[in-house]
Design brief:
globular; 78% helix
Length: 297
């Protein structure tokens, strides 16, 4: 049971980077975008190809970050400059990235077995891969949370947050909302690709299909984090996203342990997200019921 828990924590920390990227588009920018599914696979593809070509794993991971940022830029330009709706812009980029990722890898998947990864130096000092993933995952997530908390407190970061809340007010202040949207998407999909690179190195392979359903996983982690751990301030929201990603992985591991077929995981995740998103509606109907019960007493 401890091995299952530790494995869930290690994988949850790596997926938490993607969850934060989804949070930036979904909550901060208020944009529903499917570029996630292409960019996470793109990050994995770039990192895997770089490592197999002999590049330093950290350099390969950084190149994956840049690749994801380029994907975010493409979506942003389609939406802001060509006036294509955000959802359709994301779908177009996601479709294009399928071919781009195949071009990068040269085939449908790349194995990283017996290759050096970002976790190798910790494994060489005697740590198991799971614990190496936990340590490095904490480092990546910790640095990321601190950086984003600082960045979104700056003038530019505040403008990005304000764009999602009220773009009309932002324009009235003389801020170009097209620029803030593009910048937000660049940051978001850079982080998602970074997550893909780390996940590929953790599981020792990159596959063209690994991004399928990732947007639902990201949304599930965001919702679980907000519902279970709250969001009193921006730092609290960032931490809740990390805890939500870990919790989601623990839930999935326990469900599989109880005997749920792996083929039903995406159905389970979709139902979980639907129920979580419907909580305000349930609370709306439950509140009058609770008051009437108290009145009878």
């Amino acid at each position: 049971m401890l091995d299952i828990l530790m494995g869930s924590v290690s994988l949850g920390l790596l997926w938490a980077v993607m969850t934060i990227g989804v949070f930036i588009t979904y909550r901060v920018l208020d944009i529903a975008d499917l570029t996630t599914e292409g960019s996470i696979a793109m990050g994995a593809a770039i990192a895997a190809r770089g490592i197999t070509m002999g590049l330093n794993p950290f350099l390969s991971t950084f190149l994956a970050l840049l690749g994801g940022m380029a994907a975010g830029l493409a979506t942003g330009l389609l939406h802001t400059r060509l006036k294509i709706p955000a959802l359709l812009s994301g779908i177009l980029t996601m479709i294009a990235l399928w071919s781009v990722n195949l071009r990068i890898m040269g085939r449908a998947n790349i194995s990283l077995l017996r290759m050096n990864t970002v976790f190798t130096f910790l494994e060489k000092i005697g740590l198991q891969k799971t614990y190496a993933s936990i340590i490095l995952g904490f480092v990546f997530v910790g640095v990321l949370v601190v950086f984003l908390y600082w960045f979104f407190g700056t003038e530019i970061g505040s403008a990005i947050r304000a764009t999602g809340n009220n773009p009309y007010m932002v324009r009235a202040q003389g801020i170009n909302t097209d620029t803030t949207i593009i910048l937000g998407l660049i940051i978001s999909y850079g982080l998602i690709a970074l997550s893909g690179a780390l996940i590929a190195q953790n599981q020792s392979y990159s596959d063209i299909q690994m991004g399928t359903g990732s947007i639902v996983i990201g949304l599930a982690s965001v919702i679980i984090g907000e519902v279970l751990f709250g969001s009193r301030n921006f730092m609290g929201r960032l931490i809740s996203l990390v805890l939500g990603a870990i919790t989601y992985r623990i839930i999935i591991a326990l469900v599989l342990k109880l005997g749920m077929p792996a083929n039903d995981l995406k159905l389970f995740t979709a139902i979980t997200v639907a129920l979580a998103l419907s909580l305000p509606v349930f609370q709306k109907y439950l509140t009058p019921l609770k008051r009437s019960v108290k009145g009878v007493k």
